[in-house]
């Protein structure tokens, strides 16, 4: 599976958009980009995934560059409850072996 | 809505003893997964539990240390055997639940284990 690189931490202001970058320069053609987050003392929560098109759901938007070497997760209106560790994972679809890296610790501040 | 129930949510155990963690799902699933999250670390897959067959263990994890049962399509257990302080971690179960347009894996809240 392709390795992903994320900044270790970032802060964002409540009510503002949070843009979380992820680099996956060695991603293969059959690998999707998945985003999960882990709020303190909880199990990881699936957020969104995509292959090459931008995706949006009720939680977030995922922007994938045309060359698929990087992506950005966008939380449109961050709230304090969005404070969590966010994991970007490159994985073939339905490959259960999710490789969780260190992730980005996002702190939303009032 | 909650779909996975893990028990116990936390425990403090003496070294040399064993603890069995239960994972109950409210839907039938083919594959269930067990992860370990050591303090301050990310998640590592321990094994995959399929109903009716032996669990498949990842490199670095062995059946003698982490025996797994999968008696039916909604339930699995993970036992941490002959515990040492190094086994202090959060243990999580996960399943692949496809609901609507979701394709992600769903995780339980985890079992926080402290070995003293």
Please describe what this structure looks like.
The complex is a heterodimer of chains A (110) and B (116). Chain A is an all-beta fold. Helices cover 0% and strands 47% of the residues of chain A. Chain A has no helices and 9 strands. In chain A, strands 1-9-8-3-4 form a 5-stranded mixed sheet, with no helix packed on it. Chain A has a 4-stranded antiparallel sheet with strand order 2-7-6-5, with no helix packed on it. Chain B contains no helices and 11 strands. The N and C termini of chain B lie far apart (35 Å). In chain B, strand 7 (68-72) and strand 8 (75-80) form a beta hairpin. Chain B is an all-beta fold and 116 residues long. Chain B has strands spanning 4-7, 10-13, 19-25, 31-37, 43-50, 56-57, 68-72, 75-80, 89-96, 105-107, 111-115. Chain A binds chain B through residues 34, 36, 41-47, 49, 57, 87, 93-94, 96-98, 100-103, and chain B through 4, 31, 33, 42-45, 48, 58, 92, 94, 96, 101-110, 112.
How large a portion of the residues of chain B is in β-strands, by DSSP E?
A: over 45%
- Contiguous uncertain segments of 5+ residues of chain A: none
Can you tell me the overall shape of chain B?
A: globular
What is the terminal-to-terminal distance of chain B? 35 Å
What percentage of residues of chain A falls in helices of 4 or more residues? under 10%
Largest interface (C-beta under 8 Å): A-B, 21 and 23 residues
Number of helices of chain A: 0
Biggest sheet of chain B, open or closed, and with what strands and sense? 7 strands, mixed
How much helical structure, as a percent, in the residues of chain B? under 10%
Q: What's the total number of strands of chain B? A: 11
């Amino acid at each position: 599976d392709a390795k992903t690189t994320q900044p270790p931490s970032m802060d964002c202001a409540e009510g503002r958009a949070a843009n979380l970058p992820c680099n996956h320069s060695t991603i293969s053609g059959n690998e999707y980009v998945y985003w999960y987050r882990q709020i303190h003392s909880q199990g990881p929560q699936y957020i969104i995934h995509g292959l090459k098109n931008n995706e949006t759901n009720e939680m977030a938007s995922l922007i994938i560059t045309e060359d698929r070497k990087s992506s950005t997760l966008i939380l449109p209106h961050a709230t304090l409850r969005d404070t969590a560790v966010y994991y970007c994972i490159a994985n073939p679809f339905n490959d259960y072996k999710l490789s969780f890296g260190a992730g980005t610790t996002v702190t939303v501040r009032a | 809505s909650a779909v996975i129930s893990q028990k116990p949510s936390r425990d403090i155990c003496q070294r040399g003893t064993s603890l069995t963690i239960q994972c109950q799902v409210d839907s039938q699933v083919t594959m269930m997964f067990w992860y370990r999250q050591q303090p301050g670390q990310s998640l590592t897959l321990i094994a995959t539990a399929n109903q009716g067959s032996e669990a498949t263990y990842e490199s670095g994890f062995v059946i003698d240390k982490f025996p797994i049962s999968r008696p039916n399509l909604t339930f699995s257990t993970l036992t941490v055997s002959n515990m040492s302080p190094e086994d202090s971690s959060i243990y999580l179960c996960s399943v692949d639940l496809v609901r609507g347009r979701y394709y992600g894996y769903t995780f339980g809240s985890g079992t926080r284990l402290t070995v003293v």
